[in-house]
Amino acid sequence: MDGSKNPSQKECLRAYSILTTAADGDFAVPAPVQAQPMPTQSALSQTALSQTEQVRVVAADSLDQRRSNIAPAPWTWLRQVHGGRVVVVEQPGEFAGAEADAAVTAASDAVLCVQTADCAGVLFAGFSEQETPTRSEEDCVVAVGAAHAGWRGVAAGILQSTVEALIALGAQRVVWELGPCISPAAYEFGESELAALVDRYGESLRGRTDWGAPALDLRAAVRAALSETPAVYRGAQRIPCTATDPGFFSWRARQDSARQTSAIWMTANSTLSTTGVQW
Description:
Order of helices and strands: EHEEEEEEEEHHEHEEHEHEE
Number of domains: 1
CATH architecture: 4-Layer Sandwich
CATH topology: CNF1/YfiH-like putative cysteine hydrolases
């Protein structure tokens, strides 16, 4: 294997990832572009809309710069809908802005990301187990993926579908990592929705908040879903709680509109590896 679906790529590719914090800035995706106003609107209204558009453009430029500071390559970002759709990116930047909750790719220098502010951002790397006469290619990456997993996405099977898509791209060994997300201590949850998830994935999902209310353990939900796949957990470090730990955006705790990002890519280019953690 050459580490890529691209037959012209002969170098061994490595995976790199980043999990941002609030200190890295806001990675929330831009709002969809609205239809142009009708000509009958007043000049004052037109001026206000023009100013709003200028603000939107400046914000988008700033977001592009933050992304480029991490990895100066085309990014695939998604309009996440808490569903089960996985897109397969065949060239860098493909499906940017698509409605989906996960992306996978076998293309080098294609950055995949998801945005979170309590939900789980889950990153994946798929490796080859084959060997050449000169070196083991166990560490050569053949595909990477990123998934946005809120409770609805977990219920919809987004994580299992992401692993299936990576295997379809040639991954023989898949590892995953979990980014910052809300802990059960701060995630009060409705009894009926919790019962349905517990019935599907087991009692490990049932938790209690710090004030004694029923809670969902989203981390346990991610582990339970991925236990149904061949994927293996990569991390062992403590996962920060976006709601209770300082330095993270949280919708549930503070109604933050800003978002962290969890991003992953694979490359043989050293300029794309300087800011990421190698897998």
